[in-house]
Write a structure and sequence with these properties.
The complex is a heterodimer. Chain A is an alpha+beta fold. Chain A contains 2 helices and 10 strands. In chain B, strands 1, 2, 5, 6, 7, 8 and 19 form a 7-stranded mixed β-sheet that branches. Classes of the chains: A alpha+beta, B alpha/beta.
Chain lengths: 122, 423
Amino acid sequence: MSEEVRVIPCIICPVGCTINVTMKDGKVESVKGNTCKRGEVYAKTEVLTPSRTLTSTVKVRTKEGIKPVSVRTEKPIPKDLLFKAMKELNSVELDAPVKVGDVVIHNILNTGVNLIATSNIK
Amino acid sequence: MVKTDLLVIGGGPAGLAAAISAYDAGIRDIIVIDREEQPGGILKQCIHNGFGLHVFNEELSGPEYAWRFIEKANERNIDVRCETMAIDMTPDKVVTVVNVNDGQYKIKAKAIVLGMGCRERTRGALNIPGERPAGVYTAGAAQKFVNVEGYMPGKSVVILGSGDIGLIMARRMTLEGANVKMVCEVMPYSSGLKRNIVQCLDDFGIPLKLSTTVIRVHGTDRVKGVTIAKVDDNRNPIPGTEEYVECDTLLLSVGLIPENELAKSANIALDPITGGAIVNEYLETSVPGIFAAGNILHVHDLVDNVTAEATSAGYNAALYIKDNRPKSSTTLKTVRGDCVRYVVPQKVELPLSEDQNKKQRFYLRVDNIYKNVRLIVESDGKILYNIKKIAVAPGEMEHVDIPFKTLNELSSDIIFRIEKQEK
C-alpha cells in the first residue's frame, strides 16, 4: 500500500491553483487544492496519462542542400516518449517538395499518432 | 512612383489579415510588402503549437497558422512583394521601398496599414557588463537558427528572461540535446504563460530562478559562463548572492519593442508606454489614413488577437479609402486608472454610426498580479462595465467589449481600472 502526493500546478486558467493529487497503488485517491471541476480533470490526466504535442524539425534534401522543415504530432503523445520520438525524427530525411499536412512518420512509436509537416519546402 | 489604394507594410499575421480584410471589404488595389523571403512574419519560426485556438478552434503551429492566411491572400491574388523593405514614410503616405531587383522606388497609397511587428531587446538595452564573446543571442535569433536555418547556437545554455519566447526556447534547445541550466527572471514572477512554465520548464526539470539576473558575461572568444545574482525589490543585484554558472550560450528573452522607425519618420504620435502609435477606435494613427495593428501597436500574447485587431484595421482602412466614415464630432480619451498599465485604443471618436448593437473592443494590460478583483470601466461616474476577475496578470492581456450605443451616449473620458476587493 504505497501512497504518494503529486503536486500539479494547474494551467487551465490564470488562477493557477496548486493541486495535490494523492495516489494509492497507481490510482487517484483524492484531488485537493483545485477551485473548479476543470482543474480536477486536468490534474487527473496529468497524473495518469500526461501527454504533449511534440513539435520539431526534420531534414529535407533540396536543390540548395539540406533544409529543416517544421513538423508536429497530429495529437499529443505520451510525455515520456518525447525524447524517443526526437531520436526517430533525427533519423528522417525527406526529399523536397514537402507540403503543409504531409505525413512524415506514420504512427510514430506505435502511438497511433502521425507526425505531419507544418511548413512548405520547395 | 507606384500608386495603390492600400499599402500594407509587413506580411506577418497582422499585415496579411489586414490585406485580406480590406480586400473582402471591396478594395482591390492592395500591395503588401515584406522584407523577408517569405510572408508569415515571426510565425515562420514559431514551430511550437498553440496558435489558432480562438480563430480556428484548433491548435496549430505558427507556420500552419501563417499558411492559412498566405493561402487566403493568394486566393485573392493580393500583390505580396517579398524581400522588399520600407525605408521611409511621409505623412502624405508616400513610402520609399527598396529591393534587390527593382532598386529603390516610391509607393503612394490612399491608406496604409502598419504591421511591422516588434524586434527584440538586446544585450545593449540591458547593459550587462563583461566581455563581448560569441554565444550571446536573443531568444528569437536562436529560434530562427534552430527552426529555420537548422543550426544549434550552443550546447550549454542559460536563459535570461522568462517571457514566452525564452520558455519556448528552453524546451526547444533541450529537445535538440542542449543542456539548459536555468532560466533567470529579474521580476518576482514570470511574464510567461503558466502553460509554458509547466510544459517547457517543469517537464524537463529546468529551474526557474525568480528575482535573479545575469550581472556579468565571461569569456573572450566564446561565452565560458555567466555570473548571476539575486536582486532586491528595486531590481538591484544583492552583494554576496553572486554565483558563477558555466555555459557556452546566453539567450536573452527580455522584452519586445514595436519597430516604429517608419511611424516616427511620418511624424506619427507614439504612446510612450506601449511603444506603438496612439490610435482611435478605427486603429488609425495621428496621421489620417495610416492605421496600425498587431505587435507594432502593442505587444500581444496571442496571435489570434493580432488577427482580430488587424482584420478590424484592414476593414477601417477600406472605409477610409471609400470615404465612408462618419465625421467625428467628439473625441474621448481612454484613461488608465488604478492598476492598469495601458489601454488601446487610446481615444474614441464619436459618433460610431454603424449598427448600434456592434461592440467596440478595448485591450488593456494590468501592472501587476492581482487576485479577486473587479475590472471596471466608467465615464462621468457611470459604470459601463463591471466584471469580477479571479486573477489578472501583466502577461495576460485583458479585453473589454462595449456596445456602440453605450459609447455614443458618453461625453467624458473613459476610465479603465482594477478595483481590489475589500477583505
